[in-house]
């Protein structure tokens, strides 16, 4: 990535992949492609730390909860794992940990390593109080997931009451819900026999089954569960190592994978990988690699975590599965910002247990790199996902040279001219909201949960409203009446009234949500919050590029996008239209006091009573600026468990540090 603009495009693209994978269960790309792009992103952030944005996928986990489920905040975040793709990467991970531990401790022997199959399922957080299951939740964004307690209680392997106490007063137990192969095949045969849609793979089947609104449907699905670790614990777990923890879980009646092993050396850990890779096809469930964990809890605490991943654990992936097929066509899809993305249509081929027929090509540079042409035989790679990666063209099988691909010059949806900036690999439609595809995706963004949060207005309803020309821009949503909505298919009086009520409720929002909802290029949720903390609407409309780049998280590219947006007469008009429809953010959304005015606070590590977002909102309400990195201008660092480099930097700079208990006590005093 040669500049910050291409870096931000990569961040946006990877967040889109995350959303489709974790929330919609509709992966857009294969594991290998995602991992490669994430690795390039990490390399760019390492080379250019000034580019780093807080919404980068290297700083977050998964995605947010679905709207139809209640939210559940994990008492301890569910972190994701870094990946090792070969033996050298695994050894490097182990040596890094060993080096850290040797700095401060005289190790009598190297740390033991716990080895577990990496199940291809859905992560779940189980909370037991006094041995009784009180809540089950999905991973979500790592801090907040979906409350699926009723569905989880239908799992036959999951005890509602633990056995053989004593147990901690409260404990979070992490596990993976999966669908065994035989159950998956039998279920798909039943669905096909009744004319219903079948699932593409066991992981999607497990995810879809857990997210059923009717627990009876979940109960009818052949789901299974293995637990693999603990989160927050109140009381005594009485286990000094991870392997002892798993043994404790088994005594309590929880299912633990019998393939789990604890070994004494990295060589034995590698041997376990080879052993299980040979037995992979024999297992009754899908796995896509091995998870390695430092066994001793003390060493886990010493090693801590970096961003979203613990230093004491890593996942080594199995090689992706490959197959050859023919590229039959390339379609072009238009996104919210006008980016036109090429999608390869393939002759269907069975690979990795799934029949696949398309793959994303990302952009025109990727097409040029591959040298791909219509009719080519191509090698595709799949690693547990629906949509694979095109690895290469098989030149030897090209019967004759097909003509080189001609890039489109007009939008495939609205026929408007396409343009490509000199420093971008992306073609863009120049029509903006005139383009139906951009209009649809922008409206979907506008009503989404983190934007205006309009419940009951989904993609199908928006599609119908746009098709019948009932809405053209966001303000048109607020002018809808029940009688108008009732003209649509399957929209009765009660449903129409609910939509209008939901739209009316969404008018009262915050300035940050409003800014995010506008869909300004490169202005994500966190940047919108930062801007809302420093400007009102009039000030933002008048701000120059020079003024904007003084704001954290706003560089020259984002600043220019903001200026372009607020100086565009058409966009100014529909912002004014929204205000005239009654969209507002009450004054109480601003600081409730100025007790922390002029101070810059940073939050790091895991917080248990509050999420970092909640703590940040309360600090901003007291006048503080909440930043993402520590500098000499930082007034205070709040450090929870797992605090890493930010804590070290704060200590080296002499920045005051407090823990969560001190923060809560201070907040109560300031807010009184």
Automatic annotation (TrEMBL):
BRCT domain location: 591-672
Entry keywords, A to Z: DNA damage, DNA repair, DNA replication, Ligase, Magnesium, Manganese, Metal-binding, NAD, Zinc
- GO molecular function per UniProt: DNA binding; DNA ligase (NAD+) activity; metal ion binding
Q: Which residues form the active site?
A: 118 (n6-amp-lysine intermediate)
UniProt keyword annotation of Membrane present? no
Q: Tell me its cofactors.
A: Mg(2+); Mn(2+)
Q: Which PROSITE patterns match?
A: BRCT, DNA_LIGASE_N1, DNA_LIGASE_N2
Q: What positions does the entry give for Zn(2+) binding?
A: 411, 414, 435
- Specify which residues bind NAD(+) according to the UniProt entry for this protein: 31-35, 80-81, 116, 139, 176, 293, 317
Q: A GO BP term, please?
A: DNA repair
Q: Which reaction does it catalyse?
A: NAD(+) + (deoxyribonucleotide)n-3'-hydroxyl + 5'-phospho-(deoxyribonucleotide)m = (deoxyribonucleotide)n+m + AMP + beta-nicotinamide D-nucleotide
Question: Would you say which domain of life the source belongs to?
Answer: Bacteria
Provide the E.C. number(s) assigned to this enzyme. 6.5.1.2
Xref: InterPro entries: BRCT_dom, BRCT_dom_sf, DisA/LigA_HHH, DNA_ligase, DNA_ligase_AS, DNA_ligase_CS, DNAligase_adenylation, DNAligase_N
Q: Name one GO cellular component term.
A: cytosol
What family, per the record? Answer: Belongs to the NAD-dependent DNA ligase family. LigA subfamily.
What this protein is reported to do is described as:
DNA ligase that catalyzes the formation of phosphodiester linkages between 5'-phosphoryl and 3'-hydroxyl groups in double-stranded DNA using NAD as a coenzyme and as the energy source for the reaction. It is essential for DNA replication and repair of damaged DNA.
Q: Mind telling me what this protein is named?
A: DNA ligase
User: What is the species listed in this Swiss-Prot or TrEMBL entry?
Assistant: Litorivicinus lipolyticus
